[in-house]
Every structure is written in structure tokens, then in C-alpha cells.
Amino acid sequence: MDYTSLITLCSFAFLAGFVDAIIGGGGLIQTPATLFTLPQYPVPTLLGTTKIPSLSGSLMGAFQYSRRVAVVGRFIGPMLGLAFGASWLGSLVLTRVPNGFMKPLALVILIAVFIYTLTKKDFGQIPQRVVTARQQQIRMALMGIVVGFYDGFFGPGTGSFLVLGFIALVGFDFLRASAHAKLVNASTNLASVLFFVNKGTIIYAVALPMAVANLTGAFLGARLAILKGNQFIRVFFLLVIAATIVRFAWDMVG
């Protein structure tokens, strides 16, 4: 491992942490950069390696948001547990079943999300509707299972799907949705890290410096999102969704 490659990876990890803390989508930056920079390593090894910086960034983002944004404490705990278990199961299934069919499905969903968010100007700007405590509990539990499994099985766009779910199903605004999404993302990333640690497919000499860079980016990204508020996060959300659509479409054409 030469220093130039490591510096390059840390730079991308910093940018990934910054973007991910605001609205999710950091994996779209960090994972391709790692695959392109270290082509001599097996893909599972590189995917496992990127999970540690992703976890560190998620934890930093979750910590920053939780200090300034009210969290639904009595429901987020069970959701984190369900997301953790579902993510572990998704990673296990990934080792046995190909996930190629996920990309076209995710692409269609993301295009619909982009169009809806772009045309509905007030989406996520204020709490959209009153959701009863029982509805919040059920919907957050289901989100934890579905999105947790998706993160372990496929991954890209998880943060954006979480934000979308918290806004559309639970009634949060963008800032509160981002705060809760980071908590759930930290749980799913932890499950993946433990899975890959158990498999022994992590390059720690790469993962640990990238983790510091990702954490630093997440600190700055979360602070900026909290400072700028919902409209700023909405713009970032649209940019990340657009980038994800382009990335998926490019991969499918290629």
C-alpha cells in the first residue's frame, strides 16, 4: 500500500462522511473509490474494509444530531435492534444469493422518489401529518426490518431510503429524518462490520485511516446540516438521489 493510494482513499472517505451525514449516500463515493484504487484485492475484502469508515461516520453523525434534534427514544431502540438483525441476515444471504436484480428495482424507486421530491416543494420542510404513537412504533419497526435487510444485502442508497421513510411514513421533516436515519445506519453498519470481522475480510491498515477521515467529514457535514436546516438538506437529498440514479443507470448500461 503506497501513501498516495491511502491519501486518495482518505480524501474520498472524508467526502463520503460529509455527504452521508447530511442526507446519506456516502457509500456511492467511498465504495467505488476503494474498488478502483485497490483492484488487486477481492471485492468482498474491499466491501468489508469500507464498512469500518462507514460505521465511524454514522456514529459521529448520530452523535451530532442527537445533541440538537429530539429523538423518538422509546421507538428508535427496537428499530435499531431489528435493523441490526436484518442487516446481519442480509449480509448472510448476500454470500449465498446474487443481488443483481436489486439495482434495476432500486433505480425505478429512486427515479420516482426524485420526481416526487422535486415537484412537491414542501416535502420534508415541516412535519407532514400527525402519526399516532402506535403507528410510529409499527412503521419504524417495519422500516428497520426492510431497510436493514436491504443495507446488508445490497447497500447503496440506504441513508436516502431511511430519510424518505421517516418523512413519508412517520411524518418527520428533513432534519429530524436525517437524525434518526443516522442512528439506524449506525446499527446496520455495525452489523455488517461484525459480520465481515468474523469473516476476516478487512484490511485494517486501510480501514482505520479511512475511518478517521470519514468521521471528520461526518462531524462537519452534520454540523452544517443542523446549521442550515431543512431547505439545505432537501437540496442535498435531490443531488444525492440524482447521483445514485446516474450511477445505477451507468452500471446497468455498462
Automatic annotation (TrEMBL):
It is a multi-pass membrane protein. InterPro entries: TM_pro_TauE-like, TSUP. It comes from the Bacteria. The chain crosses the membrane at residues 75-95, 101-119, 140-170, 202-220, 232-250. Keywords: Cell membrane, Membrane, Transmembrane, Transmembrane helix, Transport. GO terms for cellular component: plasma membrane. It is found in: Cell membrane. Belongs to the 4-toluene sulfonate uptake permease (TSUP) (TC 2.A.102) family. PANTHER family: MEMBRANE TRANSPORTER PROTEIN YFCA-RELATED, TRANSMEMBRANE PROTEIN YFCA. This is Probable membrane transporter protein. It comes from Spirosoma rhododendri.
